[in-house]
Each structure stands twice: as C-alpha cells, then as structure tokens.
Design a protein that fits this description.
alpha+beta, Arc Repressor Mutant, subunit A, elongated, 3 domains, Enolase-like, domain 1, about 20% strand, Beta-Lactamase, single chain, seven-stranded mixed beta sheet, three-stranded antiparallel beta sheet, about 50% helix, 14 helices
Length: about 350
C-alpha cells in the first residue's frame, strides 16, 4: 500500500542527511522507543555493535540536533527524537511493515468467529488494536457519506398515530411518530410505504426531492418526514467512537504524572476534537494509513501524542475510521501494521454486510 501519509517536512532538509546520519537517527529512535530514556552515543555503539567510535557517533548526533531531528534534555547527555525526527523516521527509514503471519491469522480468526453484527465488530476492532499496539484505540461506526434511503415501514398504533421506521444505507435505523389527518388501515399504510420504497430506493436527499414532486397528500406528508429525518442524520458531525486501551497507555512513562494523564483523559473526552481530527486526516483524498505526530502544529491538545489512522469501508458509500493514539514515542511500525490490517478486515466485513 506504499508508505504511510505523514506530516510534511521540507525535502531540502531530508536531503541533508548522509546515509550514516540516517542510520544513526534510525537507531537512536529505535533505542529511545524501546527504553524510554535519552540515548547516548556510547549506548548506540554498544547496542548495535557499530564500526564507529562513540566520538564519531556523538558528532553525527550533534549534527542531527542542529538539523532539528534530535534534541537533548538539559539534565542528560543523551538525546531524544523530535517530532521532525519521528516524521523522517516514519516516512523514510521505517520501510514496509507487517504483523507476523501468526498474529494476522489469530486476529482474522477472532473476527470471523464473531457474530455478523456491527457493534460486536467495532468493539472487537477496538480491543484488538489496543492489545496489539498497547495504546488507546479509536474506532468509529461506519456511516454513509450521504444519507441514502434503504427501506420504510409505516405501522398503525392507535387512532391517527403511526410509527414510521426508516432504515438508511449503512444500517442506521430511525423511528418517529406521525399524526395523520384521519385514521387509516394497516393495509393502506403498507401500500403507501411500498410505493415510497419503490420511489426512493437507494436515493439521496436531492434525488428523492427531485422524484417526490406532485405526490398524493399522504405520500407527500410521509416523504417530507423522511427527508427531515435524513437531513438530521447528515447533520450529525460526530460519529460514535469506540475506545479501548486507556489502562495500558496510562502505564507509559509519558503519562505517569497526573497532569499528563489528565490531559490525555480530557483529549479522549473531547469528541468534537477527535471528530475534527478524524474528518481532516481521513478526508476522501487521503490514501492508506495516515500518521499524525505531535498534532502537526495544528492541534495543541495532541502536541505530545501521535495518532495512526486509516479509513475502512466502501469509498464514496459507507466508511468508518480506526486508529491508535499514544505517546510520540510509539512503535510506529507495529501501529501502522495493525491499523492497516484491521482496516482491511473491517472493509471486507462492511462489503459482506452491506453489498
């Protein structure tokens, strides 16, 4: 599927790294991700048995710091990656990644053992992602990119009251009471519903409006309510989000302090922010897995976090999003592999359910 999409950096900066600097940057990042403490030149030489002296590596690390790829805490002689360093690593040094065949088989088996019910798939995707990557997982329910009519039922209750049940493409079910001008038999209501089903099947709001001119009074009244419900569904900007893995991520060193943990909790509670990030990072033009590092200078609440995201479903018809959220010191290769694989599984299941 190619390299994951990641926040931009200047191509001129990328070309300034020599092959040796690229290798050392990659090793520093891998060492820091594994140990969560600043990395010294001696530690790199010893851990990877490099054919260079610690002094040579130290000089290269100093150059990488000048270029903005590394920094060092004032209390330590070791260095840690910057957001720019992580971006370079993901885009140019990580290479193609994949889960092991055994892990893929296990995950696939879990999904196909589950019942064919979307809620169960979403919970399973969230728990599997969280367990595999050891981060917080985020999975949104699939939704139609445009509200599209699927099926209508009209059920007589008492007197002039009728229960309208509207099913949209993607499985969204809406119910609403309708008060008629006069009581009607169930047969008459069923005939009306069938005529509207024939007229509106698979159509969007605009298409139904174009078809619904000059309808008889009852059909027009029901159609107006159907369109009102569909507009309301389209206007809901925040999809339902399934989450898992908070306990695991709070054990990471970055979130052991109460203040940083509280920031993470507030972030996860801000559904409008999560919806904004998901919508922009996973626009229809986005291809494959997207990696957001440190909020990309746009989302302050994500300044100490990274997200790995992917869209799943049927492009242009019904899609959802899934991904992981954790510290910038993330195992990006594993995160990208898991997100990509589970997104592909979810896409297969959406096709199976809705096509």
């Amino acid at each position: 599927m190619g390299r994951p999409g990641v926040g931009p950096y200047e191509a001129s900066e990328a070309r300034m790294l020599t092959p040796r600097q690229q290798m050392i940057l990659g090793l520093v990042i891998r060492q820091y991700v594994a140990q969560a403490r600043p990395v010294s030149s001696r530690a790199v030489v010893e851990a990877y048995n490099l054919p260079f002296s610690p002094a040579t590596v130290r000089n290269e690390m100093a150059r990488l710091e000048e270029l903005g790829y590394l920094t060092h805490p004032h209390t330590s002689a070791g260095r840690v990656p910057t957001d720019l360093g992580y971006r370079y690593f993901v885009q140019r040094l990580l290479g193609e990644t994949a889960l092991s065949p055994a892990e893929e088989r296990m995950i696939r088996h879990q999904f196909y053992q589950a019942q064919r019910e979307m809620g169960q798939w979403l919970r399973l995707a969230a728990s599997t992602l969280a367990r595999t990557v050891r981060t917080v997982s985020l999975v949104t329910a699939p939704r139609a990119e445009q509200a599209r009519f699927r099926h209508l039922e009209l059920i007589s209750t008492r007197g002039r009251l009728v229960l309208l049940i509207l099913v949209l493409q993607g499985g969204t079910v809406q119910q609403q009471m309708l008060t008629l001008a006069e009581p009607l038999s169930q047969d008459r209501l069923s005939q009306t519903a069938q005529r509207l089903n024939d007229l509106c099947a698979d159509k969007t709001i605009a298409e139904i409006e174009a078809q619904a001119r000059n309808l008889p009074t009852l059909e027009a009244e029901v159609c107006d309510l159907v369109l009102e419900i569909m507009r309301d569904v389209e206007s809901r900007a925040i999809p339902e989000v399934y989450r898992d893995g908070l306990t695991e991520v709070l054990q990471e060193p970055e979130f052991t302090e109460s203040e940083s943990a509280q920031k993470l909790l507030r972030l996860l509670e801000e559904e409008s922010l999560l919806a904004e990030v998901l919508n922009e990072a996973l626009s229809p033009s986005a291809d494959g897995v997207q990696v957001l590092i440190g909020g990309e200078g746009r989302w302050e609440a994500l300044s100490h976090c990274s997200m790995v995201l992917a869209r799943y479903g049927i492009p242009g018809t019904i899609t959802g999003a899934l991904g992981v959220l954790g510290p910038t010191r993330m195992r990006y290769g594993r995160a990208i592999s898991a997100v990509r694989y589970i997104a592909d599984l979810m896409t297969d299941l959406v096709y199976e359910l809705f096509v």
